[in-house]
């Protein structure tokens, strides 16, 4: 869409978007990471800025992506750094969107020097510990009227469908909106297109049609502006 065709319905709204995948270091040259490209988070930040929002983009590791115009970019690496940056930006925000792929666990120990093959007989074991749940922390400390959005990638399994898992996660996380990507072969990771559902705490369940990540971003910001409008009345 041409920029002048976009609504300016986020004028002056303060938005924080997290994007990309965190890296949890094992030693100076190795880490545990994930396959997040950062494209969805960057599209969310770009579209919000085009619609008039003040955007802080807290970004972990991504593919080579252009900085979204008109946003303040805060680069981080680990889950704990992401937590600190998001929490500090969230203190003054109307909307927080957690699109980052946050590592659930990190190695207990990070070696100061490169680990050598010969350091370990027998072969080493990596012991992990849990990272903070940033989204849960945001919900706990939510400002009056603040809107908090989570993202989840789900597959169906023997205990339930993608949508079943999504409903349970929305309840567990306590956020206002949850975007759920159905993942499987060739979906969501490292591709231009996403498909899934947008669920709200109020019970809305919107199927998000297959489309570009900018389209998913537009759908999410439409839902956010609808919530903002209702809260200001
Ligand atoms: N998230 C977070 N902090 C974490 C892990 C996840 O803030 N330590 C956020 C993600 O950014 C996302 C949402 O929580 O917006 C859901 O992430 P997901 O990994 O699906 O949820 P988990 O509770 O970690 O559940 P799972 O066991 O399925 O990984
Ligand atoms: Ca997780």
Automatic annotation (TrEMBL):
Pathway in which this enzyme or protein is active: Cofactor biosynthesis; coenzyme A biosynthesis; CoA from (R)-pantothenate: step 3/5; Cofactor biosynthesis; coenzyme A biosynthesis; CoA from (R)-pantothenate: step 2/5
Annotated stretches, region: Phosphopantothenate--cysteine ligase: 15-233
Keywords, comma-separated and alphabetical: Decarboxylase, Flavoprotein, FMN, Ligase, Lyase, Magnesium, Metal-binding, Multifunctional enzyme
Keyword Lyase among record annotations: yes
Chain residues that bind CTP: 104, 114, 132-135, 151, 169, 173
Residue span, DNA/pantothenate metabolism flavoprotein C-terminal domain: 10-226
Signal peptide (from-to): none
Catalytic activity, reaction form: (R)-4'-phosphopantothenate + L-cysteine + CTP = N-[(R)-4-phosphopantothenoyl]-L-cysteine + CMP + diphosphate + H(+); N-[(R)-4-phosphopantothenoyl]-L-cysteine + H(+) = (R)-4'-phosphopantetheine + CO2
Note describing how the cofactor binds: Binds 1 FMN per subunit.
Any single Gene Ontology cellular-component annotation: phosphopantothenoylcysteine decarboxylase complex
EC number(s) from the headed UniProt entry: 4.1.1.36, 6.3.2.5
CC cofactor: FMN; Mg(2+)
Molecular function, one GO term: metal ion binding
Role noted for this protein: Catalyzes two sequential steps in the biosynthesis of coenzyme A. In the first step cysteine is conjugated to 4'-phosphopantothenate to form 4-phosphopantothenoylcysteine. In the second step the latter compound is decarboxylated to form 4'-phosphopantotheine.
Entry similarity comment: In the N-terminal section; belongs to the HFCD (homo-oligomeric flavin containing Cys decarboxylase) superfamily.
Name used for this protein in its record: Coenzyme A biosynthesis bifunctional protein CoaBC
Residue numbers of the full-length protein present here: 175 to 407 of 409
């Amino acid at each position: 869409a041409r920029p002048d065709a976009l609504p300016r319905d986020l004028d002056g709204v303060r938005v924080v978007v997290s994007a990309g995948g965190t890296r949890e270091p094992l030693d100076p040259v190795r880490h545990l990471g994930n396959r997040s490209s950062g494209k969805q988070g960057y599209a969310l930040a770009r579209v919000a800025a085009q619609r008039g929002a003040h955007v802080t983009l807290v970004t972990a590791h991504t593919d080579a992506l252009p900085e979204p115009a008109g946003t303040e970019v805060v680069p981080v690496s680990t889950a704990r750094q992401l937590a600190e940056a998001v929490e500090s930006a969230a203190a003054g925000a109307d909307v927080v969107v957690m699109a980052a792929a946050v590592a659930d666990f990190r190695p207990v120990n990070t070696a100061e020097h490169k680990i050598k093959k010969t350091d370990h007989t027998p072969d080493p074991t990596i012991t992990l510990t849990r990272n903070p749940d940033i989204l849960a922390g945001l919900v706990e400390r939510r400002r009056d009227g603040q809107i908090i959005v989570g993202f989840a990638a789900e597959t169906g399994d023997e205990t339930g469908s993608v949508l079943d898992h999504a409903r349970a996660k929305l309840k567990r996380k306590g956020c206002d909106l949850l975007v759920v990507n159905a993942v499987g072969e060739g979906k969501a990771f490292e591709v231009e297109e996403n498909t899934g559902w947008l669920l709200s705490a109020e019970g809305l369940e919107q199927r998000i049609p297959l489309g570009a990540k900018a389209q998913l971003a537009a759908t999410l910001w439409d839902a956010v502006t609808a919530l903002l409008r209702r809260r200001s009345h």
